[in-house]
Design goal:
heterodimer; A: alpha/beta; Nucleotidyltransferase, domain 5; 5-stranded mixed β-sheet; 6 helices; 10 strands; 30% helix; 31% strand; B: alpha/beta; 2 domains; 10 helices; 41% helix; globular
């Protein structure tokens, strides 16, 4: 199975090719230059592997949560590529990719969501995959849901931006922290491969970001 | 050559397929007006979220209506700016991804160039050069247009756009959003001469506009005259706005010595404005051109068309894309 994967949910812009278990990847700290970097990264990778899009089995993108603009660049590019190459698409939850990127057994993920909030979830590794213990949500750092036991690695930019509130909230449950780790396309590819195998690929039109933060404005009657 | 056009700069998702030989093959539009109405105006984040849901289904619809497949497309044009950054990025990413997948050239189009050239999609179509009055919710400008990409700004609004004045007047009169059609409808049952509203800058001697004072005058009048006067106020406002837009357009024709006027943008759909300009045209012996009525507001057809004018020397996409939320029309150059 051959898959193209990419992630643009954070300031790290990354792309990867999954070639029957082998991974080729590229990444760059992009700031807000994802639109300049992403597609050239993808064409580079394809060239290196001597492949064209039509030879792939699917396209996977990091669907969120994360920067709204970043998510839409990734989703829009996935839609355009998949429409043009007639390939199925899967969206992978950013917080899961982050947990895979961290490479630990128990990941408590907190991604900075700005506005004094984090996107938070908890995953336990099981075999090659993950079990979701606490589903993705957006919370104040001192109000994130917590697992009962200890031995968790705190992963993601939330632990850099809200270090004090999160460490005091998590207390003894935290065994350590990796605040500098980002979701990477390699992890998106690893998570997407079994999804494509299970027939979860969808038509390009169905590719949608997962924003988690859904209330973004007040209606006139709510003001 | 067949060009797919993608417009997503504000609150309409527009997709179209234009053929340089056969003309417009198909176009489809999804307006977000109803969604934003509950918020009293366009919410940029919600606009972006809607564009990314609509663009592909509309693309499939347009291809089906045109009897074409993706393989028939020779180039892709998207609105690069000006507009809402997040909304523009949706069209830009989809266009660029599609361009890479199909190995096609991709061009970013200036939204106002799209409007400016949209009367060329009508029959009869104007010859260059002409004077263009661009009137929408975001813009009020008079341009001298010598050819594709050869634009000179002659005057513009110093504050509110004309369409914005319609929207704000509608709001003050308790009407819905968007205000243009709502004000025009109410005005039909009012007496336009009952209240005398100002004609800002009509005799300023230049080609600039100002509409914020007119809006304030509406507010004061509404407070003084009470709710029963709404239809008369709407009619008085519409007449004042049309007097100014028509007066400045005539002055621009006189100043340039040209005898062709092109009216583009959403306010160009206003019937009173059209009646006035048509009457002046037959009286003074100039020609006035409008886009087809369906293409007055934002749409994909004008982007496909403006893109087609710029494709001659375009190379296949390298995949890099960028948007220009602020972009002055006079920065454009004629295609090489």
């Amino acid at each position: 199975m051959k898959i193209l994967a990419f992630d643009t949910a954070t300031e790290l812009c990354s792309a990867a090719l999954w070639l029957d278990g082998e991974i080729l990847s590229r990444s760059e700290m992009a700031g807000n230059r994802h639109s300049e970097l992403l597609l050239p990264m993808i064409t580079d990778l394809l060239q290196q592997a001597g492949l064209v899009l039509g030879q792939l089995d699917g396209i996977a993108f990091g669907k969120g949560p994360g920067s709204f603009t970043g998510l839409r660049i990734g989703c829009g590019v996935a839609q355009g590529l998949a429409l043009g190459a007639e390939l199925p698409v899967v969206g992978v939850v950013t917080l899961e990719s982050l947990a895979i990127s961290a490479g630990v057994d128990k990941a408590l993920v907190c991604l900075d969501a700005r506005m004094n909030e984090v996107y938070s979830a908890a995953y336990v590794r099981q075999g090659d995959g993950l079990v979701c213990l606490l589903p993705p949500g957006v919370y104040k750092p001192d109000q994130i849901p917590l697992p009962d036991d200890g031995g968790w690695l705190g992963c993601g930019s939330g632990f850099a931006s809200y270090r004090d509130s999160l460490t005091s909230r998590c207390g003894h449950r935290l065994a350590g922290m990796q605040p500098d780790i980002h979701p990477h396309a390699s992890a998106v590819a690893r998570l997407a491969a079994p999804m494509f195998q299970a027939g979860l690929g969808q038509p390009a039109d169905r590719a949608e970001p997962l924003y988690v933060r859904d209330k973004v404005a007040l209606k006139t009657c709510e003001r | 050559m067949k060009v797919l056009g993608i417009e997503s700069s504000c609150d309409e998702t527009g997709i179209a397929l234009y053929d340089t030989e056969r003309g417009l093959l198909a176009h489809a539009l999804h307006s977000q007006v109803a969604m934003h109405a509950e918020y009293g105006g366009v919410v940029p984040e919600l606009a972006s979220r809607d564009h990314i849901r609509r663009a592909l289904p509309l693309t499939r619809k347009v291809l089906a209506e045109a009897g074409c497949t993706l393989k028939d497309i020779d180039g892709i044009a998207y609105t690069q700016g000006p507009g809402l950054a997040g909304a523009l990025l949706v069209g830009a990413s989809i266009a660029s991804g599609l361009g890479v997948a199909l190995n096609l050239p991709v061009v970013g189009v200036h939204h106002l160039e799209g409007h400016l050239l949209s009367p060329l999609l009508a029959d009869p179509r104007p010859e260059f050069p002409f004077v263009a009055l661009l009137v929408s919710g975001g813009h009020t400008q008079l341009m001298r247009v010598a050819g594709v990409g050869d634009y000179e700004m002659m005057g513009e609004t110093l504050d509110d756009a004309a369409g914005e004045a319609f929207d704000k007047t509608a709001q003050l009169l308790g009407l819905g959003y968007p205000g243009g059609p709502a004000v025009a409808k109410l005005a039909a049952s009012g007496d336009a001469h009952k209240y005398k509203l100002p004609r800002p800058m009509l005799n300023s001697g230049d080609l600039d506009f100002s509409f914020s004072g007119l809006k304030t005058a509406v507010l004061n009048l509404k407070n003084r005259a009470g709710p029963d006067a709404c239809a008369d106020i709407a009619a008085g406002f519409q007449l004042a706005a049309v007097d100014v837009l028509a007066g400045k357009s005539l002055a621009a024709l006189k100043q340039t010595g040209m005898n062709r006027l092109v009216v583009a943008g959403g306010v160009g759909a206003n019937q009173l404005l059209r009646d006035r300009l048509n009457a002046e045209a037959s009286r003074r012996g100039f020609q006035v051109f409008y886009p087809p009525l369906a293409l007055c507001t934002d749409n994909g057809a004008m982007i496909a068309f403006a893109g087609a004018m710029r494709f001659a020397h375009a190379a296949p996409a390298d995949g890099r894309f960028g948007i220009r939320p602020r972009w002055d029309l006079s920065e454009l150059r004629a295609p090489a």
